[in-house]
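Changelog-adjacent note: as of this version, every example in the card shows the full chain rather than a window. The one below runs 84 residues end to end.
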Amino acid sequence: MRKTLISVAALAALAFATPAFAQEVIGVIKTYDDGTRVMILEDGTRYTLSEGVTIKAYKPGMKVRYIVEDRDGTRYVTKIVTED
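Full-length structure tokens:
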């Protein structure tokens, strides 16, 4: 019984230690705000750029592919590239 409880506790701890779920998305940039580091797509979806991610090479109207992670209810872009 004790081994079962320890195993269940270890699995629960591992579940909370798992990194945020990442998702690959494609969209078209509508605007970007340097001050807040928020990118808005043409469909109205808003994403915050993670530290180290730059958008300077991308302009409104460009189709991009990006990786998004949800952290504490905020959607962060962790990588961005142009979509061919």
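Structural remarks: The chain has one helix and five strands.
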